[in-house]
Design goal:
about 130 residues, alpha+beta, 4-stranded antiparallel sheet, 4 helices, transcription cis-regulatory region binding, WH-like_DNA-bd_sf, WalR-like, transcription
Length: about 130
Amino acid sequence: MVKPFQFEELEARLNALLRRSSGFIQSTITAGPLLLDLNRKHAALGEQPLALTAYEYRILEYLMLHHQQVVPKERLMEQLYPDDDERDPNVIEVLVGRLRRKLDSSVAFKPIETVRGMGYLFNERCT
């Protein structure tokens, strides 16, 4: 791999190596009716695919991987915009709001909770 390289490319190569060496990598995460396919970067609510932007998907993936933990807004900013220190933090609120609208089609399923003054919590158990 030649420097400089993208972190996403390194991550993809490492995942491929682990897959080929028969190491176990969880490829899907499920929480209630929500299914997240980590390999295909695809999300579905029940049988319905969710039309998520790349940033919405990355937020959902991060929250699900850190389920039942409060994730500060700053950490989400670092995940989405690692090289941009001047990005407006309200962009996270907007993205989480859009993500909630797409997920909240079911009255009984509201997985993303705001913990005031601390961040966001994916409050569903993920498997």
